[in-house]
Amino acid sequence: MKRLSGTVLGFCVRGVDVEQSPPALSLQEGANYTLRCNFCTSPQSVNWYLKNSGGHLIHLVYVPSGTKQDGRLKATTVPTERCSSLHISSSQTTDSGTYFCAVQHSAPQAPAACTQTLCGAQPLLQPQSHRKASVRSP
Fold first, then answer.
1. Does 7 have pLDDT greater than 90?
2. Band (28; pLDDT cuts 50, 70, 90)
3. Is the per-residue pLDDT at 66 higher than 90?
4. What is the pLDDT of residues 36-54, one digit of tens each?
5. Cis upstream peptide for 22 (omega within 30°)
6. Integer CA distances (angstroms), 45 to 17, 49, 115, 122, 133, in order
7. Where in the chain are the domains?
8. Domain Ig-like, which positions (predicted)?
9. Does residue 69 have a pLDDT over 60?
């Protein structure tokens, strides 16, 4: 069985504090895992993305609130709790890459203005070799 591992990066962009967790992970191929994204503002919506090991950015799921399931991925956003999660079932090496949660919010100074903020990145499951995957913080 292959072993997968990763690290998490959270940062503040455009006044939106975002924290993604866990700070590090290690799991076996086939395991289930949940990534979390917490933010300081109520979102209009949350998008989850994956930058795969080939460098391609892939949109995984759009979830303004509630839960959406797409195959092995299940995303949940609870605007009142200012959090979102992405659950990966039966992890595979093809899940390797960097995961991002992007929060769309209204700017409080200009209610008509809307911005999409890239909130953080979770480098996860990046293969180091065909047998073991690891991730380093940028």
1. no
2. confident
3. yes
4. 888 877 777 888 988 887 8
5. yes
6. 16, 13, 11, 19, 31
7. 3-124
8. 16-117
9. yes
**3-124 CATH:** 2.60.40.10
**Residue with the larger pLDDT of the pair 31 and 137:** 31
**Which tokens sit at 77?**
């956003």
With a CB cutoff of 8 Å and minimum separation 6, the contacts of 115 are 14, 104, 105, 107
Measured CA to CA, the distance from residue 125 to residue 40 in angstroms comes to 27
The whole-angstrom separation of Cα 54 and Cα 26 is 21
